[in-house]
Amino acid sequence: MTPLLANVRLHPIKSLDPVYLKEARIGPGGGLEHDRAWALYSADGQWVNGKRTAAIHLIRAAYAQDLSSVTLSVPGDRRKIPTQTLAFPGDTLAASEWFSSFFEQTINVRYSPEGFPDDSIASGPTIISTASLQVVCEIFPAITLDEARRRFRTTLEIEGVPAFWEDQLFGREERSAVRFRIGEVNFEGSNPCARCPVPPRNPSTGEIIPGFQKIFSDYRRTHLPAWCPEARFDHYYRFVTNTRVAATESGRILRVGDPVVIL
Predict the structure, then answer these.
(1) pLDDT tens for residues 49-61?
(2) Looking at residues 64-89, what average pLDDT do you find?
(3) What is the mean pLDDT of residues 201-208?
(4) Cβ-Cβ contacts under 8 Å for 11 (sequence gap 6 or more)
(5) What is the mean pLDDT of the chain?
(6) Given Cys at both, which of 40, 61, 109, 218 links 92, Cβ 3.0 to 4.6 Å?
(7) Rounded (10°) angle between helices 145-152 and 130-139
(8) Closest CA relative to residue 184, chosen from 249, 257, 247
(9) Contact in structure between 258 and 180 (CB atoms under 8 Å)
(10) Residue 98 main-chain phi, psi, to 5 deg
């Protein structure tokens, strides 16, 4: 089968819910336009995200179809934090007030057209195959496919390929790059993404699966495919491929159904 782009997911607010799109434009920073466009900061200038506090998983974010607004809510919250709809991405002041109320501390919401990627060097969309996510469901049977997507928070999902197919999109050395194209957009694969404390947590409740990191890492270590450059794994809690996208690709569009070609 020809590898095809199966899913496109944006996370317009860093650490919050995704939105599924049929097509997305490459933004000025090399990521997808509007992906991680808002980020939450505490008074000390640090990110407030899933790595820092599990409470963020209790917040629901629902977006207008054209991403012109976001509705924030906290289902079941005893403090009765009000549901609020805000203009996106412009109304950062009201958003700061809402998040400050929820976290009971000063929160500043910042907007960047380039987004706030975790990896400032390999800041392009992240790549995963549907088959790899299905393996997560096999290792942890209580996790559904959609929940696996939400736990690992990837942006581009490829179908028609075997599990861990994305492990061939980075080279044996850190300075090397594998070039590939999805539709009209050119990419360079960079590295296998090191995971954080977020995937072990239920994306809706924050509840942790005990031993998740060790179980997952042991599986990765014993199931690395032949095409995978194992030298890039200083540890095996790595999953998903990070990418770089040149400035020349800005404005080009990715569409569900686009073919994927390794160059």
Answers:
(1) 999 999 999 999 9
(2) 94
(3) 95
(4) 17, 18, 19, 35, 36, 153, 155
(5) 96
(6) 109
(7) 100
(8) 249
(9) no
(10) -65, -45
Q: What are phi and psi of 146, to 5 degrees?
A: -65, -35
Whole-angstrom Cα distance, residue 55 to residue 79? 14
Specify whether the CB–CB gap between 57 and 50 falls below 8 A. yes
Residue type, 187: F
Pair of tokens at residue 136: 């997560």
CA torsion sign, 245 to 250 to 252 to 255? positive
> Which tokens sit at 89?
């991405």
Report how far residue 126's alpha carbon sits from residue 97's, in angstroms, rounded to the nearest whole number: 31
- pLDDT score at 8: 98
Q: Kindly state the helix (H) or strand (E) to which residue 132 belongs, with its residue range.
A: helix 130-139
Peptide bond into 89 cis (omega under 30): yes
Taking residues 136-159, report their average pLDDT.
98
Quote the tokens at residue 128: 């995963």
Centroid of chain to Cα 23: 16
Other beta carbons less than 10 A from residue 111's beta carbon: 15
CA-based nearest residue to 168, from 160, 178, 181: 178
